[in-house]
Amino acid sequence: MLSAMAGSSGSVISIISRLDEYRSSEYDETIFPIVVGAFKPMIGAFMGMFLFAFLNSQLLPVLLPEEPENKWFAVMSLSFLIGFSERFANDLISQAENKVSLNPQENLEK
What we know:
- The chain is mainly alpha-helical.
- It has one domain.
- Helices cover about 70% and strands about 0% of the residues.
- It has five helices and no strands.
- The protein has helices at about 1-15, 30-55, 70-85, 85-100, 105-110.
- Helix 1 (about 1-15) packs antiparallel against helix 2 (about 30-55).
- The longest helix has 26 residues, at about 30-55.
- It is elongated.
């Protein structure tokens, strides 16, 4: 739940930092900025939960601190980052796809 909140918070900060982009004349007559603003926090929350599950599955060799409180700080920071940056989320998902692909020979070559 905390990782979902951190991911959602990251996406809200991302929206706030990009408000000037949506003030252009390109979006004057559309509802697109409202739709993006409404769904981004939800997507950030889901990505935060995905990150939490992914890190705990140990599919990738990610070193997290052993101490529980430091581990939570690391997971929360990464969840915020994945909510803030769509590019980081896409990279993480593509690495997960490569790791669990149906062709095990591809995984051995990487």
